[in-house]
Write a structure and sequence with these properties.
It is built from ten helices and eleven strands. By secondary structure, the chain is α+β, with helices and mostly antiparallel strands. Helix 2 crosses helix 5 (about 145-160) and helix 2 (about 80-85) crosses helix 8.
């Protein structure tokens, strides 16, 4: 079972990553993706590990469910689609922008109060449409706008200042840091700035998996369960149309999954089983098949994970290979590309 005590911060060091996936072309290993993987059992114990699961790293957006839990604990009254959007790295579709506007309206605020970085939509199809229409980067279109709108709402509800809500010393960010440590079970190693401008907290891959497990296994009605339910029921609001993380939640009953930039993936089941993946070079092409293999290692039916084995590598327009998890991670039956 999980301990209620908080451990020391993970060490800041060069991660001792290991090979986690091979790039197979024409039956030969053309390239190797390094990284780290952890699989937790329902009892919270490490069932499988590869690479360095204890070094400090930045979870990036994979930490958003934890940030959302912290805001709900601070009184954020959102549920359903809007709570899912709070934990989102959204694609910038109109429903995402409308949701962020709605959160701001509930707080009596406007887009002008946001302090995230203006950007184009994350989804390439949506982004191309914006360019054709002559639309400019905006704070609402940036993939973290739901989180930022919710942060402002939480500040308004608690009487906290709005202009400096991204300062690590702000009461909101201090409250988030406290919940990060509570759910990961360890002190934060370092604080920096994420791409959107919000504070980014460094923990370990093991700690990230532990936090996801605690969120999915929490009792009904708790802030953790509210966030998990919202994300699972409204998976496309937490990501977008056609996104692999939404498809993964649709494919595996009860699964909560969240991706993050630089090759991070976390996923957990209602019984507390959880996996976390970090691809050292940040490659998405390895993130998905490695995460699927880790889930199969955790006991998820491999038949549910077939579509997440990764895209085929093409040569002359036909499949000549694939990205395949290393043998120790491979209970999933992969395509015959070796």
């Amino acid at each position: 079972m999980y301990s209620s005590s908080i451990a020391d911060a993970p060490l800041v060091r060069e991660p001792l990553h290991a090979p986690v996936a091979h790039l197979i072309r024409g039956g030969m290993i053309e390239g190797i993706h390094y990284g780290s993987v952890v699989v937790l059992g329902a009892d919270g114990e490490v069932q499988f590990q590869l690479g360095d699961i204890e070094a400090a790293f930045y979870p990036r957006s994979a930490l958003k469910p934890v940030q959302a839990v912290a805001m709900v604990r601070a009184g954020l009254p959102l549920d359903g689609e809007l709570l899912s959007l709070t934990a989102a790295s959204h694609s910038g579709e109109e429903r995402h922008l409308a949701g962020a506007r709605r959160i701001l309206e509930l707080a009596g605020l406007t887009e002008d109060h946001l302090r995230n970085v203006p950007d184009m939509p994350f989804d390439p199809v949506v982004r191309d449409a914006w360019i054709r229409e002559g639309r400019l980067p905006s704070r609402l279109a940036q993939n973290c706008s739901g989180k930022h709108a919710a942060m402002l709402y939480a500040c308004r509800l608690n009487g906290w200042s709005l202009e400096d809500y991204l300062d690590p010393g702000h009461p909101l960010q201090q409250a988030i840091a406290e919940i990060v440590e509570d759910l990961t079970g360890q002190r934060i190693a370092r604080v920096t700035v994420d791409g959107c401008g919000a504070p980014l907290f460094s923990v370990s891959l093991h700690g990230l998996a532990r936090a996801a497990a605690r969120i999915t296994a929490a009792a009904s009605g708790t802030p953790e369960a509210r966030v998990a339910d919202a994300m699972r029921e409204h998976a496309e609001m937490a990501s977008g149309t056609g996104r692999d993380v939404a498809a993964l939640m649709r494919a595996v009953p009860g699964l909560l999954a969240k991706d993050g930039f630089e090759g991070v993936q976390v996923a957990a089941l209602p019984d507390g089983r959880a996996v976390a993946v970090k691809i050292a070079d940040g490659a998405n092409r390895a993130r998905v098949p490695v995460a699927a293999a880790a889930l199969a290692w955790a006991g998820v039916d491999p038949e549910l994970l077939v579509e997440f084995q990764g895209e085929a590598l093409l040569g002359g327009g036909r499949a000549v290979g694939c990205v395949r998890p290393v043998r120790s991670l491979e209970p999933v039956v992969v395509s015959a590309c070796a």
